[in-house]
Amino acid sequence: MNSNSSVKGRGAQKNTNNKFSAYSYETRDDFLEFCRVEGEIADRNKTQYIPVFPKTIVNKVTSPDVGMSYSMNMYQGCEHGCIYCYARNAHEFWGYSAGLDFERKIMVKHDAPKLLEAKLRSKSWKPSTIVLSGNTDCYQPAEQEFQITRKCLEIFLKYRHPVGIITKNALILRDLDILKELNEYGLVGVNISVTSLSEETRRILEPRTTTIKKRLEAIQVLSEHGIPVNAMLAPIIPGINSHEILSLAKAVSEHGALSMAFTVVRLNGSIGEIFTDWIRKTLPDKAEKVLHQIQECHGGRLNDSRFGLRSRGDGIIATQIHDMVRLAKRKYFEGKTFPKLNTTLHESYKDGQLKLF
Protein backbone atom coordinates (compact mmCIF):
# COMPACT_ATOMS: atom_id res chain seq x y z
CA MET A 1 0.00 0.00 0.00
CA ASN A 2 1.29 3.47 -0.86
CA SER A 3 0.12 7.02 -1.55
CA ASN A 4 -0.71 6.07 -5.14
CA SER A 5 -3.29 3.49 -4.06
CA SER A 6 -6.76 4.01 -5.52
CA VAL A 7 -9.51 5.46 -3.35
CA LYS A 8 -12.32 3.15 -4.44
CA GLY A 9 -15.66 4.58 -5.46
CA ARG A 10 -14.42 8.17 -5.51
CA GLY A 11 -13.50 10.57 -8.25
CA ALA A 12 -10.74 12.57 -6.56
CA GLN A 13 -7.85 10.48 -5.36
CA LYS A 14 -6.55 12.91 -2.75
CA ASN A 15 -7.33 16.02 -0.75
CA THR A 16 -5.75 19.15 -2.19
CA ASN A 17 -4.71 21.94 0.15
CA ASN A 18 -7.31 24.59 0.93
CA LYS A 19 -5.98 27.91 -0.33
CA PHE A 20 -7.74 29.71 2.54
CA SER A 21 -6.10 27.57 5.22
CA ALA A 22 -2.69 28.16 6.84
CA TYR A 23 -2.27 24.40 7.21
CA SER A 24 -1.60 21.66 4.69
CA TYR A 25 -1.97 17.93 5.08
CA GLU A 26 -0.02 15.08 3.54
CA THR A 27 -0.64 11.33 3.62
CA ARG A 28 2.85 9.89 3.92
CA ASP A 29 3.94 6.46 2.75
CA ASP A 30 5.49 5.67 6.15
CA PHE A 31 2.11 6.29 7.83
CA LEU A 32 0.36 4.02 5.33
CA GLU A 33 2.99 1.33 5.85
CA PHE A 34 2.51 1.59 9.62
CA CYS A 35 -1.25 1.08 9.18
CA ARG A 36 -0.62 -1.94 6.97
CA VAL A 37 1.74 -3.57 9.45
CA GLU A 38 -0.56 -2.85 12.39
CA GLY A 39 -3.67 -3.97 10.52
CA GLU A 40 -5.30 -0.58 10.89
CA ILE A 41 -7.44 1.25 8.33
CA ALA A 42 -5.77 4.48 7.24
CA ASP A 43 -8.87 5.89 5.55
CA ARG A 44 -12.37 4.50 6.07
CA ASN A 45 -13.65 6.39 3.02
CA LYS A 46 -17.05 7.10 4.57
CA THR A 47 -19.48 9.85 3.65
CA GLN A 48 -20.33 12.28 6.44
CA TYR A 49 -23.50 14.40 6.47
CA ILE A 50 -23.05 17.74 8.25
CA PRO A 51 -26.08 19.96 9.04
CA VAL A 52 -25.61 23.64 8.25
CA PHE A 53 -27.99 26.55 8.78
CA PRO A 54 -27.62 29.36 6.21
CA LYS A 55 -29.71 32.49 6.56
CA THR A 56 -30.75 32.52 2.89
CA ILE A 57 -31.10 29.82 0.23
CA VAL A 58 -31.77 31.63 -3.09
CA ASN A 59 -28.65 32.99 -4.77
CA LYS A 60 -28.56 35.66 -7.47
CA VAL A 61 -26.27 34.53 -10.30
CA THR A 62 -24.20 37.44 -11.57
CA SER A 63 -21.88 35.59 -13.97
CA PRO A 64 -22.73 36.88 -17.47
CA ASP A 65 -22.21 33.53 -19.22
CA VAL A 66 -24.26 31.27 -16.94
CA GLY A 67 -27.75 30.59 -18.25
CA MET A 68 -29.67 31.29 -15.06
CA SER A 69 -30.59 34.29 -12.92
CA TYR A 70 -31.18 32.54 -9.59
CA SER A 71 -30.09 29.23 -8.12
CA MET A 72 -30.39 27.32 -4.88
CA ASN A 73 -28.56 24.33 -3.45
CA MET A 74 -29.94 22.04 -0.77
CA TYR A 75 -26.56 20.39 -0.34
CA GLN A 76 -22.93 21.59 -0.47
CA GLY A 77 -20.49 18.98 -1.66
CA CYS A 78 -21.63 16.10 -3.83
CA GLU A 79 -21.19 12.38 -3.39
CA HIS A 80 -21.42 11.79 -7.13
CA GLY A 81 -17.69 12.52 -7.25
CA CYS A 82 -17.50 13.85 -10.81
CA ILE A 83 -13.80 14.49 -11.27
CA TYR A 84 -14.27 17.62 -13.40
CA CYS A 85 -16.93 19.34 -11.25
CA TYR A 86 -16.54 23.12 -11.15
CA ALA A 87 -18.31 23.21 -7.77
CA ARG A 88 -15.39 21.55 -6.00
CA ASN A 89 -13.72 24.89 -5.39
CA ALA A 90 -16.72 26.14 -3.40
CA HIS A 91 -15.95 23.56 -0.71
CA GLU A 92 -12.86 25.54 0.23
CA PHE A 93 -15.08 28.41 1.42
CA TRP A 94 -16.44 26.01 4.04
CA GLY A 95 -12.95 25.10 5.27
CA TYR A 96 -12.66 21.79 3.43
CA SER A 97 -10.69 20.43 0.49
CA ALA A 98 -11.96 20.50 -3.08
CA GLY A 99 -10.74 16.91 -3.41
CA LEU A 100 -12.02 13.97 -1.38
CA ASP A 101 -13.67 16.25 1.19
CA PHE A 102 -16.01 17.53 -1.53
CA GLU A 103 -17.31 13.97 -2.03
CA ARG A 104 -17.26 12.79 1.58
CA LYS A 105 -18.26 15.81 3.66
CA ILE A 106 -21.75 16.75 2.50
CA MET A 107 -23.39 19.75 4.12
CA VAL A 108 -27.15 19.44 4.44
CA LYS A 109 -29.45 22.48 4.56
CA HIS A 110 -32.48 21.14 6.42
CA ASP A 111 -34.09 24.59 6.55
CA ALA A 112 -34.07 25.02 2.77
CA PRO A 113 -37.87 24.61 2.31
CA LYS A 114 -38.61 27.16 5.05
CA LEU A 115 -36.08 29.63 3.64
CA LEU A 116 -37.47 29.17 0.12
CA GLU A 117 -41.03 29.77 1.29
CA ALA A 118 -39.99 32.97 3.05
CA LYS A 119 -38.31 34.15 -0.15
CA LEU A 120 -41.32 33.45 -2.35
CA ARG A 121 -43.65 35.20 0.11
CA SER A 122 -41.44 38.30 0.24
CA LYS A 123 -43.20 41.39 -1.08
CA SER A 124 -40.06 42.44 -2.93
CA TRP A 125 -39.63 39.14 -4.76
CA LYS A 126 -40.50 39.15 -8.45
CA PRO A 127 -41.02 35.73 -10.06
CA SER A 128 -38.01 34.47 -12.00
CA THR A 129 -37.00 30.87 -12.59
CA ILE A 130 -34.95 29.46 -9.70
CA VAL A 131 -32.67 26.62 -10.73
CA LEU A 132 -32.04 23.74 -8.35
CA SER A 133 -28.45 22.48 -8.52
CA GLY A 134 -26.73 25.59 -9.71
CA ASN A 135 -23.77 24.23 -7.77
CA THR A 136 -24.30 20.64 -6.56
CA ASP A 137 -26.80 17.99 -7.63
CA CYS A 138 -30.13 18.23 -5.81
CA TYR A 139 -30.74 14.50 -6.44
CA GLN A 140 -27.39 13.23 -5.18
CA PRO A 141 -27.48 10.21 -2.80
CA ALA A 142 -28.16 12.41 0.27
CA GLU A 143 -31.58 13.25 -1.18
CA GLN A 144 -32.75 9.66 -0.72
CA GLU A 145 -32.46 10.14 3.03
CA PHE A 146 -33.32 13.80 3.57
CA GLN A 147 -35.87 14.50 0.76
CA ILE A 148 -35.18 18.23 0.90
CA THR A 149 -35.52 18.61 -2.87
CA ARG A 150 -38.98 17.07 -2.83
CA LYS A 151 -40.07 19.40 -0.02
CA CYS A 152 -38.82 22.39 -2.01
CA LEU A 153 -40.71 21.26 -5.11
CA GLU A 154 -43.86 21.20 -2.99
CA ILE A 155 -43.19 24.84 -2.07
CA PHE A 156 -42.75 25.81 -5.72
CA LEU A 157 -46.07 24.14 -6.53
CA LYS A 158 -47.86 25.77 -3.59
CA TYR A 159 -46.78 29.22 -4.73
CA ARG A 160 -47.06 28.49 -8.47
CA HIS A 161 -43.45 29.53 -9.03
CA PRO A 162 -41.24 28.38 -11.95
CA VAL A 163 -38.35 26.04 -11.15
CA GLY A 164 -35.54 24.57 -13.21
CA ILE A 165 -33.72 21.38 -12.25
CA ILE A 166 -30.23 20.20 -13.20
CA THR A 167 -29.37 16.59 -12.34
CA LYS A 168 -27.69 13.42 -13.53
CA ASN A 169 -29.60 11.16 -11.17
CA ALA A 170 -32.67 9.11 -12.07
CA LEU A 171 -33.93 9.70 -8.52
CA ILE A 172 -35.79 12.62 -10.06
CA LEU A 173 -38.46 10.13 -11.17
CA ARG A 174 -39.39 9.62 -7.52
CA ASP A 175 -40.95 13.09 -7.70
CA LEU A 176 -42.79 12.55 -10.96
CA ASP A 177 -46.12 13.24 -9.25
CA ILE A 178 -45.10 16.77 -8.24
CA LEU A 179 -43.31 17.42 -11.54
CA LYS A 180 -46.46 16.55 -13.49
CA GLU A 181 -48.49 19.01 -11.40
CA LEU A 182 -45.90 21.75 -11.87
CA ASN A 183 -45.88 21.07 -15.60
CA GLU A 184 -49.65 21.51 -15.83
CA TYR A 185 -48.98 25.19 -15.13
CA GLY A 186 -45.81 25.42 -17.24
CA LEU A 187 -43.67 25.80 -14.12
CA VAL A 188 -40.89 23.24 -14.56
CA GLY A 189 -38.04 22.46 -16.92
CA VAL A 190 -35.50 19.67 -16.38
CA ASN A 191 -31.88 19.46 -17.47
CA ILE A 192 -30.43 15.94 -17.48
CA SER A 193 -26.65 15.60 -17.75
CA VAL A 194 -25.40 12.82 -20.03
CA THR A 195 -21.63 12.86 -20.41
CA SER A 196 -20.98 9.59 -22.24
CA LEU A 197 -22.70 6.51 -23.63
CA SER A 198 -19.88 4.33 -22.30
CA GLU A 199 -20.46 2.86 -18.85
CA GLU A 200 -16.72 2.49 -18.38
CA THR A 201 -16.19 6.20 -19.08
CA ARG A 202 -19.12 7.10 -16.83
CA ARG A 203 -17.78 4.93 -14.03
CA ILE A 204 -14.35 6.54 -13.92
CA LEU A 205 -15.50 10.12 -14.57
CA GLU A 206 -18.58 10.10 -12.33
CA PRO A 207 -18.20 7.14 -9.97
CA ARG A 208 -21.37 7.43 -7.87
CA THR A 209 -23.82 8.65 -10.49
CA THR A 210 -26.79 6.94 -12.09
CA THR A 211 -25.94 4.70 -15.04
CA ILE A 212 -26.29 6.07 -18.57
CA LYS A 213 -29.19 3.67 -19.23
CA LYS A 214 -31.10 5.04 -16.22
CA ARG A 215 -30.47 8.65 -17.28
CA LEU A 216 -31.80 8.02 -20.77
CA GLU A 217 -34.80 6.28 -19.25
CA ALA A 218 -35.37 9.32 -17.03
CA ILE A 219 -35.37 11.59 -20.11
CA GLN A 220 -37.86 9.27 -21.79
CA VAL A 221 -40.25 9.02 -18.83
CA LEU A 222 -40.25 12.77 -18.21
CA SER A 223 -40.76 13.47 -21.91
CA GLU A 224 -43.61 10.97 -22.17
CA HIS A 225 -45.40 12.98 -19.48
CA GLY A 226 -44.86 16.22 -21.39
CA ILE A 227 -42.23 17.57 -18.99
CA PRO A 228 -39.65 19.50 -21.06
CA VAL A 229 -36.12 18.10 -20.91
CA ASN A 230 -32.88 19.70 -22.04
CA ALA A 231 -29.89 17.35 -22.30
CA MET A 232 -26.63 18.68 -20.87
CA LEU A 233 -23.75 17.10 -22.81
CA ALA A 234 -21.29 18.59 -20.40
CA PRO A 235 -18.50 18.83 -20.08
CA ILE A 236 -16.98 17.79 -23.37
CA ILE A 237 -13.46 16.59 -22.55
CA PRO A 238 -11.09 16.31 -25.53
CA GLY A 239 -9.71 12.81 -25.84
CA ILE A 240 -12.26 11.30 -23.45
CA ASN A 241 -15.80 11.97 -24.69
CA SER A 242 -15.36 14.51 -27.50
CA HIS A 243 -15.78 11.76 -30.10
CA GLU A 244 -19.27 10.95 -28.75
CA ILE A 245 -21.04 14.24 -29.49
CA LEU A 246 -23.14 12.98 -32.41
CA SER A 247 -24.02 9.68 -30.76
CA LEU A 248 -24.92 11.43 -27.51
CA ALA A 249 -27.12 13.94 -29.32
CA LYS A 250 -28.88 11.15 -31.22
CA ALA A 251 -29.52 9.14 -28.05
CA VAL A 252 -30.96 11.99 -25.98
CA SER A 253 -33.09 13.24 -28.87
CA GLU A 254 -34.51 9.77 -29.51
CA HIS A 255 -35.43 9.53 -25.83
CA GLY A 256 -37.38 12.79 -26.03
CA ALA A 257 -35.05 15.67 -25.13
CA LEU A 258 -36.24 18.93 -26.70
CA SER A 259 -32.83 20.59 -26.77
CA MET A 260 -29.18 20.08 -25.91
CA ALA A 261 -26.43 22.22 -24.45
CA PHE A 262 -22.72 21.68 -23.87
CA THR A 263 -19.61 23.13 -22.29
CA VAL A 264 -15.92 22.53 -22.95
CA VAL A 265 -14.22 21.32 -19.78
CA ARG A 266 -12.16 23.84 -17.82
CA LEU A 267 -10.20 22.93 -14.74
CA ASN A 268 -10.40 26.05 -12.61
CA GLY A 269 -8.81 26.51 -9.20
CA SER A 270 -7.89 23.31 -7.40
CA ILE A 271 -9.63 21.16 -10.01
CA GLY A 272 -6.58 21.32 -12.29
CA GLU A 273 -4.47 19.56 -9.65
CA ILE A 274 -7.25 17.10 -8.78
CA PHE A 275 -7.94 16.19 -12.42
CA THR A 276 -4.24 15.91 -13.29
CA ASP A 277 -3.61 13.58 -10.34
CA TRP A 278 -6.69 11.52 -11.25
CA ILE A 279 -5.95 11.08 -14.94
CA ARG A 280 -2.31 10.13 -14.38
CA LYS A 281 -3.48 7.39 -12.00
CA THR A 282 -6.59 6.30 -13.88
CA LEU A 283 -5.67 6.75 -17.57
CA PRO A 284 -1.86 6.98 -17.54
CA ASP A 285 -1.49 6.18 -21.25
CA LYS A 286 -3.85 9.03 -22.22
CA ALA A 287 -3.00 11.52 -19.51
CA GLU A 288 -0.58 13.88 -21.22
CA LYS A 289 -2.48 13.89 -24.50
CA VAL A 290 -5.75 14.77 -22.79
CA LEU A 291 -4.17 17.46 -20.60
CA HIS A 292 -2.47 19.07 -23.60
CA GLN A 293 -5.73 19.08 -25.58
CA ILE A 294 -7.58 20.73 -22.70
CA GLN A 295 -4.84 23.36 -22.54
CA GLU A 296 -5.19 23.86 -26.29
CA CYS A 297 -8.82 24.85 -25.69
CA HIS A 298 -7.90 27.50 -23.12
CA GLY A 299 -4.93 29.43 -24.41
CA GLY A 300 -2.36 26.98 -23.07
CA ARG A 301 -3.85 26.73 -19.56
CA LEU A 302 -6.02 24.21 -17.74
CA ASN A 303 -7.89 27.04 -16.06
CA ASP A 304 -9.71 29.72 -18.01
CA SER A 305 -11.53 32.57 -16.26
CA ARG A 306 -12.41 34.60 -19.36
CA PHE A 307 -16.15 35.31 -19.42
CA GLY A 308 -17.69 34.17 -22.68
CA LEU A 309 -14.79 31.82 -23.42
CA ARG A 310 -14.21 29.88 -20.21
CA SER A 311 -16.97 27.33 -20.87
CA ARG A 312 -16.74 27.47 -24.67
CA GLY A 313 -13.01 27.36 -25.22
CA ASP A 314 -11.13 28.60 -28.26
CA GLY A 315 -8.51 27.28 -30.64
CA ILE A 316 -8.61 24.45 -33.17
CA ILE A 317 -9.91 21.68 -30.91
CA ALA A 318 -12.65 23.87 -29.40
CA THR A 319 -13.69 24.93 -32.91
CA GLN A 320 -14.00 21.28 -33.93
CA ILE A 321 -16.20 20.63 -30.88
CA HIS A 322 -18.43 23.61 -31.71
CA ASP A 323 -18.75 22.50 -35.34
CA MET A 324 -19.77 19.01 -34.23
CA VAL A 325 -22.37 20.41 -31.81
CA ARG A 326 -23.88 22.60 -34.54
CA LEU A 327 -24.12 19.56 -36.81
CA ALA A 328 -25.71 17.52 -34.01
CA LYS A 329 -28.35 20.18 -33.36
CA ARG A 330 -29.24 20.42 -37.05
CA LYS A 331 -29.39 16.66 -37.41
CA TYR A 332 -31.27 15.68 -34.25
CA PHE A 333 -33.07 18.77 -32.87
CA GLU A 334 -34.48 20.45 -35.95
CA GLY A 335 -37.94 21.82 -35.12
CA LYS A 336 -37.67 21.09 -31.40
CA THR A 337 -38.01 23.93 -28.88
CA PHE A 338 -37.53 24.07 -25.11
CA PRO A 339 -40.37 26.26 -23.72
CA LYS A 340 -40.09 29.31 -21.49
CA LEU A 341 -41.46 28.76 -18.02
CA ASN A 342 -44.55 30.54 -16.74
CA THR A 343 -43.92 33.51 -14.42
CA THR A 344 -47.46 34.93 -14.53
CA LEU A 345 -49.12 32.89 -11.76
CA HIS A 346 -46.96 33.52 -8.74
CA GLU A 347 -48.20 37.00 -7.81
CA SER A 348 -51.69 35.60 -7.32
CA TYR A 349 -50.37 32.90 -4.97
CA LYS A 350 -48.03 34.99 -2.81
CA ASP A 351 -49.79 33.93 0.36
CA GLY A 352 -49.98 30.28 -0.71
CA GLN A 353 -53.48 30.34 -2.15
CA LEU A 354 -55.21 31.95 -5.10
CA LYS A 355 -56.18 35.57 -4.53
CA LEU A 356 -59.70 36.17 -5.74
CA PHE A 357 -59.69 39.94 -5.28
From TrEMBL:
Classification via Pfam families: Radical_SAM
PROSITE patterns cross-referenced by the UniProt entry: RADICAL_SAM (PS51918)
Gene Ontology MF, one: metal ion binding
InterPro entries: Elp3/MiaA/NifB-like_rSAM, MJ0683-like, rSAM, rSAM_sf
Coiled-coil segments: none
Protein known as: DNA repair photolyase
Keywords: Iron, Iron-sulfur, Lyase, Metal-binding
PANTHER family hit by this protein: SLR0285 PROTEIN (PTHR43432)
Sequence intervals crossing the membrane: none
Superkingdom in the source lineage: Bacteria
Domain Radical SAM core intervals: 64-301
CDD domains reported in the protein's UniProt record: Radical_SAM
